Amino acid sequence: MTSNAAIKVDFSAKAPAHTQHDFAPGKMISFNTYLRPAPTYYYGNDIIEELAAMLHGIEHDKIFFVTNAVLKDFYWNEIAAAFARNCLVSECITIDDAEKDKRFANLERLCETLVEKFVTKGSIIIGFGGGCLTNIVGLASGLIFRGIRYIEIPTTFMSVTDSCLSNKQAVNGRYGKNQYGMYYAPMFIFGDTRFLKTESLSGRKSAIAEGIKNALINDASLLPYYEDVLDTDLDNMKPRTLTELGYNIICSKQEILRKDPSEKLFAMALEYGHTFGHAIEFFSGGSVPHGIAVAKGMCVAAEISNRLGFMSREEVNMHYHMFGDSLRIDLKIPESISVDDIMDTILADNKKTAKGVKYVVLEKIGACLNPDGDFQICVDTDLVRSVLRDHNASVDAILG
Ligand SMILES: NC(=O)c1ccc[n+]([C@@H]2O[C@H](COP(=O)([O-])OP(=O)(O)OC[C@H]3O[C@@H](n4cnc5c(N)ncnc54)[C@H](O)[C@@H]3O)[C@@H](O)[C@H]2O)c1
Asked: What is the pLDDT of residues 347-396, one digit of tens each?
């Protein structure tokens, strides 16, 4: 367990899900995502040959493999070779995929490029990248000719464990994140953790922060497991250990989707920390990675819960210690982002209703407030502003 005495996670621990599986290289498992529609998730380490064999068995005219220039350099040769061994006709297309590229102009360019290259209703489009790239490619696939078959290959730990477990595809607008999009399910998801070897540590932390979020909103008995994970050297995880950890995070999200495949009721709890996180991510131009921005947002949401009379000070502090001390995330909101910036973006957030902006707030660790049946509550704007104003000072006071 962690050496930080300030963290008191005394929830009963649950055995992690991975113990049912052998994640040796080359072994692929498949499971239900519980989305609606529910694409199958094929998962493992070093399993690209399996993908090529599966594609060989699916009738199609051509595969359009969309990725970014860096990932193309890293991985396209070996993937193209596996495709060629299985007599697949494919072409690689690159796009820009930073958070700032998740916008209409880039989406339109990709759609026009695919049409120019004679994509047909018989084609298959593959999105190979992180959550930004797969959001853009998933949306393009849904739009072209009202829907081309799409396969999602997530290549960041965040997208392997979180963003691919959603049929939501979107680009950002001028006023905020994910403002334009739709639900469009891939044929299947293919997660090969071998592609994570080139990812940065902050990407890995981002995914673990979302995994902890799943425990905070739905299953506190998973928190001791994450404490043990955070005590290990995250930068030097063996592929098998990383694949196991990924599977456990996937299972924790799967449990939530099992309760609400629509992603619109209980699964709204997955947005814990996201209203603030999205604003921080948006205004940082993507320099604060998604999960790290969400971790900051969860601390803000925890303070709101405390001020509303729900979570205890100890429960709130546990957020700071888990993300700040153990995961070693900088929890401060960058000075360049003002409270007004955040509030303006929140007013354009997709959780805004006629009654005001709704927030996901915990009643206690492991349970969301749910006064109206949509797992969100309206919070007085002045209270939100006050918590945001105090946020960086709270980080200093709690973490020292
Ligand atoms: N649809 C959903 O429900 C959902 C859920 C969570 C997040 N998201 C979205 O996902 C995005 C964040 O995704 P992300 O965290 O995967 O980050 P990202 O897509 O921004 O990728 C981060 C960086 O890593 C690079 N990269 C990707 N794979 C790599 C690899 N294997 N090796 C080296 N570099 C690699 C990317 O090119 C990019 O520069 C946000 O836009 C967020 O809104 C969507």
From this structure: 877 767 767 889 999 999 999 999 999 999 999 999 999 999 999 999 99
Q: pLDDT tens-digit profile of 29-59?
A: 999 999 999 999 999 999 999 999 999 999 9
Q: Which two tokens stand for residue 216?
A: 């905070």
CA of 81 to the centre of ligand 1 (A): 25
Domain match, 367 and 229 both: yes
Domain region containing 371:
201-399
The CA 302 to ligand 1 mean position distance, Å, reads 25
Are the C-beta atoms of residues 67 and 129 closer than 8 Å to each other? yes
Q: Is the peptide bond before 186 cis (omega within 30 degrees of 0)?
A: no
Check which CATH number belongs to the domain holding 268 and give it: 1.20.1090.10
CATH of the domain at 171: 3.40.50.1970
- CB contact at 8 A, 265 and 374: yes
Residue that is last in its domain, among 180, 198, 216:
198
Helix axes 381-399, 339-347, angle to 10 degrees: 130
Q: Which of 138, 173, 198 is the last residue of a domain?
A: 198
What are the phi and psi torsion angles at 94 (to 5°)?
-110, 145
What's the gap in Å between 344 CA and the centre of ligand 1?
25
Q: How many domains does the chain have?
A: 2
